[in-house]
Amino acid sequence: MELSKRQETILEIVKKEGPITGEQIAERLRLTRATLRPDMAILTMSGMLEARPRVGYFYSGKKPGQELAEKLHQITINDIKSVPVVVSEQCTVYDAVVTMFIEDVGTMFVVREGGLLEGVISRKDLLKTTLGGQDIHKLPVGVIMTRMPNVVYVESDASVLEAARKLITHEVDALPVVRQVKGKDDHKDLEVVGRFSKTNVTRLFVELGEGAY
Ligand code: ADP
Q1: Predicted confidence (pLDDT) per residue in 15-48, tens digit
Q2: CATH number where 199 lies
Q3: Please, what is the Cα angle at 198 between 193 and 200, to 5 degrees?
Q4: Candidate of 100, 111, 172, 196 to mutate for ligand 1, largest count of ligand atoms within 8 Å of Cβ
Q5: Which residues form a coiled coil (predicted)?
Q6: What would the pLDDT profile of 121-172 be if each residue is shown by its tens digit?
Q7: What is the C-alpha R_g of the chain?
Q8: Could you tell me which of 89, 94, 124, 153 has the fewest CB atoms within 10 Å of its CB?
Q9: What sections of 104-185 are H helices per DSSP?
Q10: Into how many domains does the chain fold?
């Protein structure tokens, strides 16, 4: 991030004299507080300066961008996940296509009783099948889905950064958000509790840009 000459000067003043009020910074620069407001906003939003009510500004010691990186580590999947759209393994390809349109999602999760994860079905899986000439009114999604243990998933307490990295590494659009539950014979099952997709990442990106997070 490029700082203007004036912003550099403000940083120097706060480094030396902080905590210092906006009023005092304005006096040092012989400017009005209103003139300085956009600069102060940039310096606090980037995390370089911190503002405490009734105390003033002080230097955080953080590099530009560090604040954002910290947020991406701190925000968890639980904070931003969506509701999952699920179908059963016996659901036909035709019904899955209809559900995809009605629910307006690109990826659906295939579950068995108890919402336990069995597989994932994406737009392209369905498209490929419709090109294949099979009877989509009869063919169950269980035959064409990506099946466990090949499903990439994430747990609620994972950071958004970790989950977004999985989307990129595995070249997929969405991950089921799961909770580990004990199944038969101590076998670990995964209960689907949410959906994390590229849309969640884009929405968060916008919110971060607008300073809403
Ligand atoms: P699209 O098919 O709409 O481009 P994806 O890129 O997500 O969507 O899917 C590509 C392939 O990866 C599909 O065969 C799909 O079944 C599979 N897939 C999708 N999500 C996952 C996931 N979380 N884990 C494993 N495989 C997945």
Answers
A1: 999 899 999 999 999 999 999 999 999 899 888 8
A2: 3.10.580.10
A3: 60
A4: 172
A5: none
A6: 999 999 999 998 899 999 999 999 999 999 999 999 999 999 999 999 999 9
A7: 25
A8: 124
A9: 123-131, 160-169
A10: 2
Q: Identify the residues whose C-beta falls under 6 Å from ligand 1.
A: 106-107, 120-125, 146, 150-152, 171-175
Task: Calculate the alpha carbon distances from 208 to 68, 71, 136, 201 in Å.
Answer: 8, 9, 42, 10
What pLDDT does residue 142 have? 97
d(CA 81, ligand 1 centre) in Å:
18
Domain extent at residue 146: 73-209
Distances, alpha carbon 61 to alpha carbons 16, 18, 46, 72, 198, in Å: 12, 12, 11, 19, 33
Give the global pTM.
Answer: 0.78
